[in-house]
Design a protein that fits this description.
The complex is a heterodimer of chains A (84) and B (182). The radius of gyration of chain A is 13 Å and the shape is globular. Chain A has a single domain, classed as Folate-binding superfamily (Folate-binding fold, 2-Layer Sandwich), CATH 3.30.2270. In chain A, 13% of the residues lie in helices and 39% in strands. Chain A is mainly β and 84 residues long. In chain A, a hairpin with a 3-residue loop joins strand 1 and strand 2. With 182 residues, chain B is an alpha+beta fold. Chain B is built from 3 helices and 11 strands; from the N terminus they run E-E-E-H-E-E-E-E-E-H-E-E-E-H. In chain B, the strands form 2 sheets. Chain B has a 6-stranded antiparallel beta sheet with strand order 1-2-8-11-10-9, covered by helices on one side. A 5-stranded antiparallel beta sheet of chain B has the order 4-5-6-3-7, with no helix packed on it. In chain B, helix 2 packs across helix 3. Chain B is globular and about 55 Å long. The relative contact order of chain B is 0.21. Classes of the chains: A mainly beta (84), B alpha+beta (182). Chains A and B meet through strand 2 of A and strand 9 of B.
Amino acid sequence: MRLTCPLCGPRDVREFSYRGDAVLTDRPTTPEGFHDYVHIRENPAGPHDELWHHGAGCGGWLKVRRDTVTHEVLSVALAREARS
Amino acid sequence: MADILRAQSPFSGRLPVTAGPFKAVEVIPGSVMSVAPYRGQQAAVSKALSHHGLRFPDAGEAVEAAHAAALWTGLDECFVISDAPLPLNLDGIAAVTDQTDGWGWLRLTGAGWQEVMARLCPVDPALMVPGRALRSEVGHMMAIVYGVTDGVIVCVMRSFAGTMAHDISVALTSVAAQKEME
């Protein structure tokens, strides 16, 4: 598996760590929202937004849209830019 | 009187290693400064660096001047390496730390050095050319790699220097032995 880092270009998966569902970047503003934020996850068979850390490369956090059925990588963006 | 303490370089006693056409030697930059511009200050940092013939590098770029270079080292960060410490004048616009003693630098040369790097690093060695600086793994260690005219310079954290010297020695000895048999 390869990811095309927006800064480094196409790189082998060994340089990256999976860091969970991309909903983690949408931190809730109220205490009530934290239960879902911490515990509730979708488990789609199909496109899924997730976070990857390019620890052995640029150090950037990436928001990756990946098809969980085919493993096709649909898009990769810097997480800080994908949020805004 | 007891012998006084002496500074040792990261690869002291470990390099150089040579085999066949290959040579790995230590390079010791006079000064290494990590420069991380604060948010929105990248243009201001470039302007300040322009006094030394440099600017903040684009992703994957190495900007070279006569006695200094700015190597891209990651998201919003570069290393300014120079023969002697430079007055960078980046107060208030960038986080700057002195990394001079923190990293070990080695230069790999010899015809076919790309085959040695291919053993150690997942990035295509064809991308390791002058003017490029990239971050990747070399021998499972996070490294800075940049091209020079006759080979490549690999830079790892000082604490990895022993492992790096071992890995590069094994790789270049092995590739040299295979070339011998061709």
